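pinned: reference chain
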Amino acid sequence: MTPDFWSHQYQTQANQVLVSTVKRHFANSSCANMYGLTHDAPCCLCNMHQPWPRLVESLWMATHDNGLVAVAYGPCEVTAKVGAEGAPVAIAEETDYPFDGKIRVTLKLARPVEFPLQLRIPAWAARATITAGGERLEPKSGGVAVLKRAWKPGGVVELNLPMELRIETRCRNAVWILRGPLYFSLRIGQEYRSGHVASGFPIFNWEIHPTTPWNYGLIIDRERPEESVRVETHPVGRLPFAQKGEPFIRKVAANEKADWRVSFRDWNEGETKSVAFAKAIWRQNEPVVLKVKGRRVLNWRLQQHSAGSLPAKLQEAPGPEADLELVPYGCTRLRVTEFPLLGAVASSLASNYQPPAAAFLRVDKVTQGRWKGVYGADGYEMAYGQFKALRRNLWVD
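pinned: its structure tokens
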């Protein structure tokens, strides 16, 4: 989705270097790659607003022993009943998670109450610490830390989840870069090309084209990435997953300059209301930026309008190393997330690469091993005209 929630994309890619209507190898239509209000599947328009509020309402959950457990983290407040007598408690959680691993929990109680407070410790948080009532704990990662005690009014629990850099190995020894719970992607210059949908609302179908090269490999230490990656942090803005320089639509007051003014009937209140919107550019830095070195891979090119598979032998561009910026995956519309790793270590790993093997087990009765025309032109989708016949006849033993 775009950070203002006015546009979403049906078919997305980890290495997404062009957003357009050109035909790709997708099973869906050529519009599936665009950002718009609704295109390939209208169900996304109906559902896309649900995950954020559902995440918020599920950050805290009750436990079987009259306690509370923090199953995910984010700035929030929760009220609940705890302890054997169901005493009311209000919890205020202060944090910039997932961009920062410092989490402060303050308990508001009318009187001391004994109940278990549980904190989930992610598997990646190898050196997490908890401070409560002057006590310092070092919980195991990949589990839940249980703090059972008589909590006093104003009690404070501080959880620190070190946001260490990690490398995840992918196909052909490519790498993904993580910091804490977030994946990071290459910042690519973006040119937005829009077709306004004449509805009175600020609705666009966006094509996004790159204005800077995307085919970079990284020069980092796989075992000690912190030695070759510099981390910059910035204040978290009102649109945490916006990329600096990208356009967005904002709601404005009635007396402000507006690009759109829309009147609509509020059927719940039985009156006509108006709302105004304006175009804007997001000027703030992303909450976290990783500074890395890299070099272009000249023989890594587009294939069917998408970033191609990594070549078996990488042809590095001559000249000095390039300064690159990686930003959180969610802040990007164009991106490279799966990178080739350059240097002597990468070369030795690539020389040992063995492609995955597969064995053909049996031929089904309908296709006889010939997929074309049965599951779509190239085997990506089921041809609708043969759907009923396949339901009757195609059985996997």
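why pinned: The chain has a mean pLDDT of 87. The chain has three domains: 8-46+164-246+282-350, 74-95+102-160, 359-397.
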